[in-house]
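Query structure, 214 tokens:
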């Protein structure tokens, strides 16, 4: 028997615009609850009503301008605010599901022209997800779903670049920790894939939580 107490799993869901990420995250939460697994859903940018959240929200709606590096650091600070509570939740046996995490931070800021290494550094040592599911969709499929919304990054050229960076980031992870899911398919098929990967972790883990990019 190991002396390391079991803990719950930390799961990040990343995805491109129109990938159905919001729906998939909600479906996953319902499924975990139905299985009797305690779950906490977090969304980054978190709660757009906090001081940092408000600055991020106004930036995303193009109601304010910020230097690319400044907004990048705000997104990262927004995650650090919650790092300790993520650890506590996991230790207490609550599965944590994040709707976006540091990979979005790196993907969007690198797509704007900042260097990948620079973008990664403020998020180094954050709790690392045990599993990241990336909901991938081609720009063509996204267009066929009615195109993009009104926010700052919801433009095809930007989404193409973001997608390229996500693919680049994914190549640094093992197949056990990063899974790219074709989200251009039917919603139910995507949800089934998501569940099949997540269910493998619902029994908890005995390995300690790792730190991102250390
Ligand atoms: P949604 O509310 O549609 O998920 O969009 N973003 C997010 C960043 O640029 N950096 C980050 O660190 C994070 C978490 C991606 C939120 C938008 O915020 C962008 C889209």
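Result returned for the query:
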């Amino acid at each position: 028997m190991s002396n390391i107490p079991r803990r719950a799993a930390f799961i990040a869901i990343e995805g491109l615009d129109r990938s159905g990420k919001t729906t998939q995250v909600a479906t996953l939460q319902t499924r975990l609850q139905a299985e009797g697994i305690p779950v906490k859903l977090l969304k980054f940018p978190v709660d757009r009503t906090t001081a940092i959240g408000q600055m991020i929200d106004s930036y995303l709606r193009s109601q304010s301008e910020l230097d690319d590096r400044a907004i990048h650091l705000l997104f990262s600070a927004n995650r650090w605010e919650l790092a300790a509570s993520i650890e506590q939740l996991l230790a207490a046996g609550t599965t944590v599901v994040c709707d976006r995490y540091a990979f979005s931070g790196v993907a969007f800021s690198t797509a704007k022209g900042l260097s990948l290494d620079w973008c990664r550094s403020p998020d180094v040592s954050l709790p690392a997800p045990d599993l990241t599911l990336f909901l991938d969709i081609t720009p063509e499929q996204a267009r066929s779903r009615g195109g993009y919304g009104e926010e700052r990054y919801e433009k095809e050229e930007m989404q193409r670049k973001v997608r390229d960076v996500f693919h680049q980031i994914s190549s640094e992870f093992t197949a056990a920790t990063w899974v790219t899911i074709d989200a251009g398919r039917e919603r139910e098929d995507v949800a089934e894939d998501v569940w099949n990967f997540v269910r493998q972790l619902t029994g908890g883990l005995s390995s300690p939580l790792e730190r991102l990019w250390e």
